[in-house]
Amino acid sequence: MLHRQLRNALEEIFGAVFVEQALGQTERAQAVIYQRQEDFKKTVLGFQRLNYRDEHQRYVTDLEDDLAIALICALLDGDTNALISELGLSYI
Q1: Is 89 exposed, middle or buried (0-12, 13-18, 19+ CB in 10 A)?
Q2: Which of 2, 49, 72, 84 has its CA 20 to 30 A from that of 78?
Q3: What is the pTM of this model?
C-alpha cells in the first residue's frame, strides 16, 4: 500500500505519463546513479527536504530528466533500489 501511495504522489508531482516512462528506463536510471553519484545525492537530498506537493512540483521543473528518472526509479523500482544498497547510498 505504501508503494501505491508513493507512486500516486510521484505521479502528481511528475505526471503519470512521465513516471510510467521513467519506470521503463531503469537501466538508464541505474547508469545515472552509478556514474553521477554526487549529482544524484544532491537531487535526493533536495527533494527530501521539501514538505509540500507544490514545493516538490517547483523543484522538479528544473530537474534534469536523467536525474528525475533516476529518482523515480530509486523510489519505485526494486532493481534500482538494490543498486543503491550495493553502492551504500544510505541517504535514500
Answers
A1: middle
A2: 49
A3: 0.93
